From TrEMBL:
Domain of life from the UniProt record: Bacteria
Principal place of residence: cytoplasm
Name of protein: Corrinoid adenosyltransferase
Gene Ontology terms, MF aspect: ATP binding; corrinoid adenosyltransferase activity
Cross-referenced PANTHER family: CORRINOID ADENOSYLTRANSFERASE (PTHR46638)
Gene3D superfamilies according to UniProt: P-loop containing nucleotide triphosphate hydrolases
Organism, as annotated: Pseudoalteromonas ruthenica
Pathway: Cofactor biosynthesis; adenosylcobalamin biosynthesis; adenosylcobalamin from cob(II)yrinate a,c-diamide: step 2/7
SUPFAM superfamilies: P-loop containing nucleoside triphosphate hydrolases
InterPro entries: CblAdoTrfase_CobA (IPR003724), P-loop_NTPase (IPR027417)
């Protein structure tokens, strides 16, 4: 037993010194571009979690929702109360609408607001929720999005969520996470729940 404890201690000491060395090496102070993609559940909630983290440090965050849900959004109800600005696309889920022209116009309008946030150095974090679909459907010009992301204030972080992130988006990003679907309650017929799914 004592042997095992000693072994564990040694191993942890080694891990700690390796981690400490890597932490000391990370010297660059700059905002991070993160893409959260994949088919599993947890992309938007992760983005909103970081918004809460940011606000909790007294920093400023802004949220752009490129697909307005059928349901009200719990995070929005909460975060709007603490002054987080929201820009919401005024259409339903895009896979429900069949009017490309109206969708494009709505996406463009929402993007104009996103661009204002992406030029505002007082905003520490911008969440571009479900942006990936706007590029997949060609509602927004990929090059224009990439340029706006690249020209943002250097200390500003940006999180992009949505399935099927374009390769050029993930290439530009500093941090990319893919949420894999192992299983989802919906597949077993369990209804989406307020306070859990939205
Ligand atoms: P969440 O907002 O819960 O973090 P998400 O952003 O990863 O989910 P979206 O593709 O934006 O996922 O879908 C939003 C809604 O669809 C949520 O209500 C979520 O529970 C549901 N959903 C997410 N992934 C799946 C899945 N693999 N199968 C069925 N429903 C899903
Ligand atoms: Mg989502």
């Amino acid at each position: 037993m004592a042997d095992k404890n000693e072994q564990h201690k040694k191993r942890q000491q080694k891990v700690k010194s390796e981690v400490d060395a890597r932490i000391a090496e990370a010297q660059t102070e700059q905002g991070v571009l993160q893409v959260i993609t994949g088919n599993g559940k947890g992309k938007s909630t992760s983005g909103f979690g970081t918004v809460a983290r940011c606000v909790g440090h007294g920093q400023k965050a802004a949220v752009v929702q490129f697909i307005k849900g059928l349901w009200e959004c719990g995070e929005r109800n909460l975060l709007a109360q603490v002054g987080v600005p929201f820009a919401v696309m005024e259409t339903g889920f895009t896979w429900e609408t069949q009017n490309r022209e109206a969708d494009t116009q709505a996406a463009q309008q929402t993007w104009q607001q996103a661009k204002v946030y992406l030029q505002d150095s007082s905003i520490d974090l911008v969440l571009l929720d479900e942006l990936t679909y706007m590029i997949t459907y060609d509602y927004l010009d990929l090059d224009e999005v990439l340029v706006a992301l690249q020209n943002r204030p250097p200390m500003q972080s940006v999180i992009i969520t949505g399935r099927g992130a374009h390769r050029r988006l993930t290439e530009l990003a500093d941090t990319v996470s893919e949420v894999r679907n192992v299983k989802h309650a919906f597949e077993a017929g369990i209804k989406a729940r307020a306070g859990f799914d939205y």
